[in-house]
Structure formats: structure tokens, C-alpha cells
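hey so u asked for the seq, here:
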Amino acid sequence: MPIFVNITLPNHIMKHFLIVLLLSFYSFSFAQDCPQATGLSTDNYVFNSTAAFVDGHWDSMLGTGVVDFLIKYKEIDSLDWNNLSNLDSTSVSRTIGPLDYNTTYVWSVVAFCSDNFQDEAEWSVVDTFTTSAYIDCPSPTGLFVNDIIPLQNNGFAVGNWDSMLGMGVDHFILNFKLLSETEWTVLSDMDSTVSSNMMGNLSPDNYYEWRVKTYCSENASYYSDWSELDTFYVGEFVPQAFSPEILMEISTLECEEVADITLNIEQDTNEPDIQSTMVTSNSGSFDISNLSEDQFVGSAVGITGINGFINNQYSLVVHDIINDNKAKIALFNTESQSNDGYFNIENSSDTGIVISIVPPSDDNSYTSGNSLTISLEGIFVNPVSTNLEFSVNINSELVDNSFTTFDFLIDCEVNVLDVYTKNDFIFPNPASNYLNMNLKGEKYIEISDLSGRLVMSLSTFDNIIDISLLKEGLYFVSVKSHQLSQKLIVR
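ran it, C-alpha cells below
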């Protein structure tokens, strides 16, 4: 038979007991209300050269009282869990890793409804995923070197490898060094479309080795092994004869008309550097009186080095009006927004014009190959009917000299303005006594009349052809050696 004991507590003790009981109940109820994470899934299985990674996702729990999340994951047969924290209430995903390749993992998420990982909910249902197998980032193959050019103080060589388009490659890194040294020179910024790159600042009469590595990610995390080493030899420097190729063009042959004049000078590798260039004419003039400082008067292109290693585009701008007959022209580099050099134009005290060009000196006496094209636009005035002759006198830094003349028949009876561009290989057109050609090397030339009858043929290295024996009329000029043809009017 049960025994009941009636215990009567003082009121103040009973009140305190009831408060503690209520606080305990509320605290228990709040902890139980912290919701459980749901909707676990994984995707974006990626890897690099050292580890794999996946993205874990769960349902949003904003507005449910959740403050933080904690993730745990482990290999399916392991006893030890790894934890990922620092996930606030806005989080709905987290990259899990680093992970082993081709391995099955389990993971779970738990929510906390107060700071410092207090008021813990139940862990979510465990989710399972398997990482991808590792796939090698492919190494470059087929390395070889060509275009090895020793210069006076350095050299260049082009390294080549098999194309890797469509193989998952993002970019390449190339290293090269002297065979006798340990420090590598690094060349980067080569995207997946390239399969060659130039190596510079090489020492003549030395052996080098080089290699290439591929990267299959934008960053440096997923990469191949280095390719097999390839070696090459940079030969001794062999100077070449001073033989610059020179071309002059004029845009119109109409007398007393404003014309554009273009000068082009090209040098092969290891020729002596040009020290100065002077262009004079026997007639014509520059309209200097109408020039003003900072006025645009043409354009220029300067190309230096193997395969156009340096290619500068210039605007020609009046830098200074020295006097009524002389002005200084600046080569304004359109990329660097600075002046890279100057040259003078003037009207001769005797007759004609003078263009004086003195390039800045460098640290050697031989060129690595260069070309300079200067086009003065709208400031040269043709003379009256005459044979306009331009003389181009070039001196090298080693006291070599090159002298070339160009003749243009200026005609006051021309009724049309004939403009000649780099696409026209013969000029002037119409012509009377002489024909100029914008071509290199030996030329095999045939000139035929309208009936197809051959009236003239020759083989020459010259770019000035005497056509004074041709009658007035329309002809066809064919340069068989260059596979070019063009109509010619003889007056």
C-alpha cells in the first residue's frame, strides 16, 4: 500500500523552484526547435595536380533562427571526421576538400541556433559522393628549335612544340638556360593556341637547353610534368655587308599639286647599323609656312628584331618650327604616348627639299634586322613639269655608304590624281620614261600590248625600269618571278 507524505514548503522556496523548472523547460524547448539541415547534394567534381574537390549543397535556412553551420566529412571506411566551419546563416554550399582521387566519402551538416556553436540541432542525414579519377594534364611533345640567329651581342631562337588545341590546355610556361648554368629564364603568357615562342638575349657561340610545361587550369594548380629537354646551339656572330633596301613613293605626278611622299628603308640581320639618312630632291618644296606646332603631318612604322620583335606605330607631329624653311618632326609613339625620336625637314637654299634622319644610337654597331617607313602627308608641293629626282644617301656606323636615286616625271597635263599605295607594285602610272617597282630580289619582267604581243622583257635586280622606247598606249606589265600583273598607261 503506497505511502503519501505531505510536505509543505514555504512560499518563497516554492516560488524559486517553479522559476527554475520553467527556465529549464524553455531552454529544453528552444534547443529542440533548432532545425535540422536538409536537401544535401554534391556537384562540381574537380581536381588539380595534388587533390580533388567537390561542392556540397543544402537547403537555405534563412529566417529559421540558424546562426552557424558545421560540416563534417570522411572517407567511408574511416573512423576520423574532418570538420569545416566558418559558415554563417546565409550559407547553402561549401567546397569540400582537399580529397583523394577516386574515393568514396560521406558528409553531414549540423545547424547551430546561437553563437559559439551552442544550441545544436540534430546532424543532417548523411550524404555520399565519390571523387573523380585523376587525369594527367598532358605534357608537350615534339620540341625543336629553328630561326637561330646570333647577333653581335646576343641572339634569338624560336622554340616549337606540337599543337595541343582541344587537349584541355589553358596555357604554357617555357624555361631555357645555358647548358652550363642552373638558373632558368622563364617565359609565360602563352595561351593554348600557341605552339612556338621566341627565346632572346642568347649568348652567341653557346649551347642552351629548354623545356615546356602545360597548365590545364587558369591558375597554377593543375599542370603537367615538364617536357623532355631539348638542346640547341647559338652559332658565332657573322657580320653582313651594308646593303639597305630603299624605296621612295609619291602619291601624284600632277604639277604644283600637294603630294604625299613615302620613304621605306629595310635592313637584313647583322648589317651595320644606320647612322644617318639624308633625302634630297632637285625640285619641289615643303609647305612649311603653313605648318604649326603639334600639327599631324603623317605616320611611320618602325620594326626591329627577328620576326618583328618590336613593332612601333608612330604619328608624325610637328615638334618645332625652326624657321620659315625648316621644321623638326617628332615620331610620336601611339602606344607609349611619347616621342621616340625626331628628324628635320627643310627647303634647300639652292633647290628642292632635304630630309635629315639620325636614329638614336644603341649599344652595338650591327642591326638585328629592321625597317622604317615614313609617310609625309600633305606637305610636299610638286614642282612644274620636270623630272623630279630624289636622292637617298645613307651612312652606317662603320663608315659604309649607300646612295640611291628615284625619278618621277611631273606632268602639268595630267587630268586625274593618281594615288599609289603599297598594293601597287609599279609607279608612276601613267608613266613616260621610267617605271618604278616596289619589289625585292631579282625580277623577270614582261610587258605586252593590248593584243598580247610581247614588246619588252628583261631580268633585273633594279627597281627602276627604262620604258622610254615604248609608244603611248595601254600595256600589261607582268612580273613572272613574283606572279604579279598590272595595267600600265604610257604617255
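Confidence is low (pLDDT under 50) at residues 1-9, 12-31, 415-423. Residues 250 and 261 are 5 Å apart (CA to CA).
lmk if thats what u needed
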